[in-house]
What does this fold into?
Amino acid sequence: MADLPKTYQPAEHERGIWGLWTGADAFTADPRRVDADRPGYSIVIPPPNVTAALHLGHAFNNTLQDVLTRTHRMRGYEAMWIPGTDHAGIATQTVVEKRLLNEEGKRRTDFTREDFIARVQAWKDEYERRITDQLKAMGCSCDWSRQRFTMDDICARAVREAFFILFRDGLIYRGKRLVNWDPASQTALADDEVEMQDVAGRFYYLRYPLVHAPANPGDMADVQEVTWSELAARGYPGASGMPDDENAWVTVATTRPETYLGDTGVAINPHDPRAKPLRGLMVQLPLVGRVIPIVEDDYVVMPLEIPGARLPERDEDAPIDPKAKFATGFLKVTPAHDPNDFEIGRRHGLDAINIMAPDASISDHHGWSDVGDARIFVGLSREKARELVMREFDARGLLEKSVPYEHAVGHSYRTHVPIEPYLSDQWYVRVTDDRLVGFAQRALRPEQRTTSTHMPMRGVSGDGEMAFFPERYARSYEQWHDNLRDWCISRQLWWGHRIPVWTREFGTWKNLIGEADGPGEELITTLLALRDREPNAPLAYFLASKSDMSRPLLEADEIQDCTDLVCVVCVRRSGPLETTRVKPRDFEAWLAKHGFAQDPDVLDTWFSSALWPLSTMGWPEPEQSPETAGLLDAFNPTSLLSTAREIITLWVSRMAMFNRYFTSPDAGRTPGRIPFQHVYIHSVIQDGHGQRMSKSLGNGVDPLDIVESHGADALRWTLTSIATGTQDVRLPVDLICPHTGQTFAPTFIQIASGHHVPAPVQDSPFAPGKKMVTSFGAASGLAKPTPETPLARNTSSKFDAGRNVCNKLWNAGRFAMGMLTRGEPAPIPASTLRASERPLVDRWMLSRLARSARACDEATNAYQFATLNQALYDVLWRDFCDWYLEAIKPTAEGDAHQRAVLRDVLDAILRLLHPVIPFVTETIWQGLRELPRTTSIEGLGLDNDASMLCLAGWPAIDDALIDERAERDFARVQALAEAIRNVRATHKVKPQRRITLHLPDALRGEIEASGGLDLVRTLAGVEHVVAIGADTGTGSTPTPFTFEGQALALSDLADAVDAGAERERLMKLVGDLDKSIAALTARLSNPGYADKAPAKLVQQTRDELARQQAEREQAAAALGSLA
RNA sequence: GGGCGAUUGGCGCAGUUGGCUAGCGCGCAUGCAUGACACGCAUGAGGUCACAGGUUCGAGCCCUGUAUCGCCCACCA
It folds into this structure.
C-alpha cells in the first residue's frame, strides 16, 4: 500500500472503475429476479431535453437518484434506473432552426419536412450522446441496456396506443379554441409553456358611439346615432349633463386597443344601473362600422363609482375586485383574441372574428371580412396597429385618456415574444374528465390530501398511495388539478410524434355514401364494421361538422343535414392490422387511397413524456422487445420520481393521469396503478446571489468541469450535502483559470432587468492583455470564448469540501490497509469475533458505526440527503479518522483481533459511503478485497462474496452493537484528552513531547477500569500518569487544570512554564463558568421551574450547577496560586 | 391576485414533537512536518437566531403582526 499516492487522483481511477462495473453488467436489472425476497426498486429518469448538455441542476437530481438506486441495489433490491432523453419538440426545433440560420443562412421552410427532421435528428444524436457521457462520467448507475428516447420505436408505439385509446374513449377532441399562439414560431403553446412577465403597458379608454339597432340586422345604412338627450330620456345616469345633440358613447378600458377590430359586443354587468337604459341599443365600432350588441354578463366588474348613479349595495365582506379601480363598467368583447371574451361570446352567441394572421399582423384573410374604413390597419404588426388605433381614435375625439399600467403578459418560453390568444383548430385532451383529473387527484395518499370542500375536487377521498417529499408539494399538485383546463396537445411543428389522425372532408352525407360505387363501399363497410369499438379495433373514427369538430355527429338526421361533413379517423398502429371484423390491411395506406390526409401537426412533447413510466417499460406490449419484457409487471409503479417543482404540473400530474387511465383494470372505469410511489421534489440550485443558474446569465456551472477539476465523487458529495428540504439552495460561483487552477471571485455588471451577471473585469489577472470572459461570456456582451482564448470556467469552492472528503477517505484507507498488512495474522481462522470481547476503543467504534448506519438509513428513507451526508461525514472523519485510527496506532500491529475490527469497520464505512461517492470507495474496496479476511465481527452483517462494492450487501448492522456504556466511557476519554490538549496548546507544547498527567486516585481508577487510560495516553501525548500531588522528581511545577469539576495537573510541559499564558487561560475559564453559573442559578431560582419542569431536568440542572461551581473553585484556586 | 420558501457568526447551511453553554463546512487566528492525509492535525476566536408583540417555568423552534429577499401559480379590463 505504500506505493499508493498521497492524494486521491480521481481521473486515474474513475474510468477503470466504470469499466469494472459495466463489464460485469452490474447495473442491468432483470425483472425475472424480482420476487418477495428481492423486491423491485425502480426509477425512470426525468428525461433531459436533447437541446443542450446537462447543467448542474441535472447533476444534482441525477446524483440523488443514483444515491437511492445504489443504496437499494446494495440493500438487496432488484434495482433498475432507466435512463433516457426527451425530444423536447419546440425547444429542440428552435435551437436547430437558430443554428441553421446562423451557420447556413437557411430557414426551416428551405428544407423538406423529411430533410429538416434529419437535421434535427443529427442534433439529437449528438446531444443524446453527450448527455449519456455526462451521466456516465458522474457515475450514474443506470441500466444502460434500457436507455430510451421519447421518439424511439418503443415510445412511439406507446404514444400511438395512448392517443388511440383516448380518441376512442372520447377523451380527445378537435376544438376551435383560443390557444396560446406564439407568433414567432407560429405554434400553439400549452398554458405551462407560457411565461408571465410584467410589462409596463397602458390602459386605454376608448369611446364607442351608441347607435339604435338597425331595423334590418346588417343594414348599416340604416344605423341611427343615439344622442345624449335620448339617453337622458331613458334614465341613463349622468347623460343629462352631456351635450344634448351629440352622439352618446360608452367607454371601454383596454390594454389592447388594436383588438377592437375584432370586437363583436360590449358587455355590462346586469346590476349596473346603466344596463337597463341601454337595452335595445348597440354600439358602432369606429372605422370598421360594425354594429355590435351590448350584452349583460355577471363577469363584468363594476367601477367603484358611476357619476350620477347609486351603485347597488355590495357585500361588506366581499373583497373589492382590483379591476374595479380601472373599470368603466363596459367591457369590449373580442372573442377571437381574449380567453374571457371567448367565454362571454359563447354565452351570448357572439361571433368570433379573427383579425390576425398567424404572425400576429392585422389581416383580413383569416376570418375578418367587414373591414370598412379599417383597411388602414391591415398588414400592420400588432404593435404598430395599436399606435395607429390610438391615433385614429384620438383624432376623432374617441380616446378618452390613457394611463400607465403594469401587468403580467404571457410570453413564449421559447421565443420570448408576447403570446397572442388565437383562434384556431387544435387537438385537446379532455383532462377535465374525471377519468383523468379525478384519477390523478385521487392518486395522492389520503393523508396528503386537504379536506377543504369549496374546491370541486377536494374532500374526495384518495385511493392512491402517491406521496410527495417534502409534503408541502402535495398542495401544489392538488391546486393545479382544481383549476385544470383541457390540454391542447397539437403543435405546429415538424419535430415530434405526428398526430395519428386522418381526415377527409365529404361535404354531405350523400357524397360520402356516393362513394359506395367504388372503393367507398369498402370504406363505409369497414367503418361500420368497427362502429361497435371492439377492444382490438385497428381504428376509431367520428363524423363531424367541419365548423365545429369538437362534437361528433351522432344522430342520423344531424349527419344527413350536415353540409360540411368531415370524417375523422384515428389509426391505432402503423403497418398491417386486423381484427375479427375486418381484413388485415395497412390502414394508413388504405386511408390515403381513400383521399384522407394525415394531420400535419405533431403532439406536445409532454404527451410522450406523460407516458414515460409506461413507454420505457414497453407498454402496451412489453414482450414485443427483449429490452422491455417483464418490466411492467416487475417495476410499474416505479418507486420514486425525483424532479424539479416547476414540472409538477407539466409532467407529474400527466403521468399520474395516463398511468392510472391506461392501466385501468376495467377500461377506464376505475383507476389503475399510480406511476410512482414517491415524488421527491428537489431544490433549485441558485448562485451565491440567489439567481437561478442559467446559460444566459452566465452563472451556470458545468458538471463536467467539476468532474475534471475535483472528480465525480467530489461533485456528488457536495451536491448531496446541499440537498436540504428547502426550495432553493445556493452555490456561490467562482471563476477558475484552467491553466493555473487559481480561482477568482467573479465581478459583476448590471444589466437592464436588474440581475447581476458575473462577468470578468478587463484586467483579469489570468488574462494579461486580453479581454476575458467567463465560459458563458457571450451572454454578457463580452467576447465569445474560443479555444485559443484562455477562458475562465465557472466553479464553486463548495466542491473543495467533496474533494477533501474523498482525499481523507483515500488516506484513511491507505493507512488502514497498511496496518492490516503488518503484524501476525489472526490466530483463529475464519471465525467471528464479538464486540463484547473487545477493548473500549473497538466497542466504541462499532457502536458509533451501528448508530451511523441507522442514521444513514433513516435519512435515506426520508430523502434527507444533507442529513445523510452529515452522518457519513461524522462517522468517517470525526469518529474513524480523528479518534479511532489515532487511538489504535500503538496497538493494532500487535493485536490481530483489532485488525479484524479495523478491517470490517473500514469495509462497512466504505459500503455506507458508496452510494454517494462510488468511485473512490470502489477503488479502495478493491484493494481491501485483496487482503485476507479471516475473522469477521459479529453483528456487522457484511457479506463476503461480492466481487465489487457496488454489488456488495448493505451493512445489516445489529442494534446490539450500540453500546451506551462504551460511548459514555469513550466520551470521557475524549473530554479528558481535549482538556489536556487545550492546556498543551496554550503552552505551545511540542506535539512530540510526552508529558505527565496528575490524576486523583478515584478518577484514575474509573478511567482505568473502563479501559480508557492507555487511550488517554495515546490521544493526549501523556507518558506518565501519577497521583495528584505526587512528586514526579523532575522538580517542575505541575500546571493545574480542571476536569469534571476536579483538579488535575500536567507536568513536564516544557523546561519552563509560561505563567502569563496560564493566567490568561484560567481567567477565561473562570469568566465562562461565571456566566454559565449565573444562568443556571437564575433558572433554578425561577419559582415556576422547579414546580413545572420535569424533575429529571431539574436534577440535571442542579448537578450541572454543582459541577461548574466546583470547577470554578478549582480554577480560581489555581489562578490564586499563580499570583 | 393566490400559494410557498427563506431570514441563525464573513460566506454557504443544519437545528424533526420547545429543555444542558445554538451545531457543521468554508473562511479567520495561533501552533504543528506527529507512524495516513497540509485536499492535513491540534487548539481557539467569532452568533442580542430579521424586527415587534404574545403563549410558557423555559422560545431559534409555537401564535399574531411587520420588513426584506426569492420561487411557483394565475384568462392581458
